[in-house]
Amino acid sequence: MELTLCYPHLGNSSCRRIVRPHSVYVLLYIILSSISVLTVTLNLLVIIAISHFKKLHSPTNFLLLSLAVSDFCVGFIFIFQILLLDNCWYLSAGWCMFYIVLSFVSTSASIGTVVLISIDRYIAVCDPLHYHTKVTVNRARMSVVLCWVCCFFYTLIIINYRKNTDGLKSCTGECVGYLHPFALILDLILTFILPFSTIIILYVRVFVVAVSQARAMHSHVAVVKLQGSVKVNKSELKAARVLGVVVVVFLCCLTPFYIVELIAGVTTVPSSSFAYVLSLCYFNSCVNPMIYVFLYPWFRKCVKCIFSLQILKSGSSEANIM
Questions:
Q1: CATH level 3 topology of 21-318
Q2: Helix, coil or strand: residue 89
């Protein structure tokens, strides 16, 4: 791998361009393009399914819809990652700003939505008698809207875009957002430490309750006492298990990125390492709908209805796909 200039006519003011073997470029283009198309397609199927079928209009599914929208946006971020394979930005400054804002908003919204999903499962499993009064469709919608609005304004506040006119511009041909050291610490606290701690604490509690309920169900006395609520608990526990897989995969994909970001604050991190963990972070958006395919029967039914164009028939939104 050798380095040349992004804009040779600008001399030393130009950023360094990474030159790789042609075969490596082709392989990277194929991999990133495939992930981008797969991410956009699968999450679009989730968006269409939950939006179209009224039987899926539940508080939990509206949270999944929010997660699918943020993952759908990440699918387009992969396109910009492809453009930056050689470490050079050839588009306009406006597109660079769009890329940076979209990256921050979509990832922040994903984190916020996963926190809401954890709260939803915590109430459903730990306080099932009051779940339907505490968690309603309207409250779920308002929570999602509030989450996205907060993420958008948070992004605008915390990002200081490197413009050509300021002293932060190190070279021509780059597209990065500058975070002040204080803003970097604040970002780590608000988008990593607090939400991830909340997610882990809530799901540990859900796991403890799930284990205790499973033991109670094996007791004949407990089954007699709880026979009116066991059926509800089983369905909620099943949903908690599926969403638990989503949360675990989410933590595994995003944690390395924040660890590298934290290390980068005290020492130099190779750009290849940062690119790897960032790609892993974005790849999580492709994994989520795959989890639904394998673990949600209703999603598989919805996909069949979409590809067979049955959703175009009148009254298809009322179909029982559960």
A1: Rhopdopsin 7-helix transmembrane proteins (1.20.1070)
A2: coil
Per-domain boundaries in the chain: 21-318
Q: Which of 247, 280, 302 has the alpha carbon at shortest distance from 52?
A: 302
Long-range contacts of 98-103 (CB under 8 A, 24+ apart): 99/175, 100/159, 100/161, 100/175, 100/176, 100/177, 101/155, 101/156, 101/159, 102/73, 102/76, 102/77, 103/77
Going residue by residue through the chain (322 aa), what tens digit of pLDDT does each one get?
Answer: 456 888 887 777 788 887 878 888 888 888 888 988 999 999 999 999 999 888 888 898 999 999 999 999 988 888 888 888 887 888 888 888 898 899 889 989 988 998 998 899 888 888 888 888 888 999 999 999 999 999 999 888 887 644 433 444 567 777 877 667 777 788 888 888 898 888 888 888 887 877 776 666 666 545 544 444 444 456 666 666 767 777 788 888 888 888 887 776 666 666 667 777 877 888 888 888 888 767 778 888 888 888 888 888 887 777 777 6
CB proximity list for 45: less than 8 A, separation 6 or greater: 289, 299, 302, 303, 306
Integer distance in angstroms from the first to the last C-alpha of the chain? 53
Tell me the C-alpha distance between 139 and 145, whole Å.
10
Residue in the structure block whose two tokens are 């339907």: 132
pTM of structure: 0.83
Query: According to the 3-state scheme, what is the secondary structure of 13-77?
Result: HECEEEECCHHHHHHHHHHHHHHHHHHHHHHHHHHHHHHHCHHHCCHHHHHHHHHHHHHHHHHHH
Contact (CB, 8 A) for 114 and 250 = yes
Residue whose C-alpha is closest to residue 80's, from 62, 94, 60: 94
